[in-house]
Amino acid sequence: MTGPARPTRVAAVVVSYNRGPLLAETLEALAAQTHRPAAVVVVDNASTDGSAEVAERDGVDLVRLEVNTGGAGGFATAMATALARHDPTWIWVMDDDVVPAPGALAALLAAADASATPVDALCSRAEWTDGREHPMNTPRPWALASRTARENASAAGGVAVRSVSFVSSIYRVSAVRERGLPIADYFIWNDDFEYSTRIIAGSLGLAVPASVVLHQTAALADTDADPGPRFYFEVRNKLWVFRHARGLLPREKAVFVLSTARRWIRTWRRSQDRAVIADGWRRGVGDARSRPPRPNAVVLAGAGVPPDVLDVVAELDRVQQAWEHGR
């Protein structure tokens, strides 16, 4: 006989780096949710603008890191903190420039409950300051989804997707405990792509239009906008996904390899300094070939991660390795 279902407990996690005023808006929006998170975790990536002080308020679990670990290291730390201290059933992930509408969390949970197919990851609709959907965070419907998956997604008020963005997405804790944390060594870019495809593998990912967040980027730019020197991370990390990640099946990787190649060509063509893009491509390819990503416990050692959290990081490194060996 199965026991009663666990009450829904959501831990919201935010990674902050030198955007104190925007972080304040994010925290105010979390406090105003119609379904309030049971806990809020803020990981400060060694900010120098007072962002950590913004987060020092009642009810916020603040982790101050001693070095900037990037979004990837920050989210790995934040999710491990939620697991170590707050016993959630879901973890809601977002950047520090995201302002969720009051019903954003409630809409995500309602869609998960309404789905006839198991759902382990869902994302919000991200809008820019003028109300248009943000192209940087618009998940594409998954072309290889079965008819049943598409119908179940629609019935739940969502769209079947294969990956979601860390701008505002929610993950079932049972899947996190089975498949591990985001990979800190990515630092920035494609960490959410790798992680969400790993979590969604074998289940259903949902984009939920009724869950709306404001993403306050400086400009309304797509993923193939000119990234300058950061193109290095796009290349290295995407190649890490294609060479080492186990979340995608071979035919799924083929689809993403083609779309990535097209996007890289567009990025090069649109760049104001193609030499920088070419240099990022060369260095990214070289570093992706030289080694795979390191375990999170290695990357985060010495970053100021609390011992109880680092224990969870190490445990989930082992969990991820075991899951990947079983794929």
From TrEMBL:
Hey, which pathway is this one from? Cell wall biogenesis; cell wall polysaccharide biosynthesis
Taxonomic classification: Bacteria, Bacillati, Actinomycetota, Actinomycetes, Propionibacteriales
Which residues does the UniProt record annotate as the domain Glycosyltransferase 2-like? Answer: 13-177
**Could you say which EC number(s) this protein's record lists?**
2.4.-.-
What protein name is recorded for this chain?
A: Glycosyltransferase, group 2 family protein
Matches recorded under InterPro entries: Glyco_trans_2-like (IPR001173), Nucleotide-diphossugar_trans (IPR029044)
Q: What family name appears in the similarity comment?
A: Belongs to the glycosyltransferase 2 family.
Q: Which UniProt keywords apply?
A: Glycosyltransferase, Transferase
As given in the record, the signal peptide range reads none
What is the protein's species of origin? Answer: Aeromicrobium marinum DSM 15272
Pfam families per the UniProt record, alphabetical: Glycos_transf_2
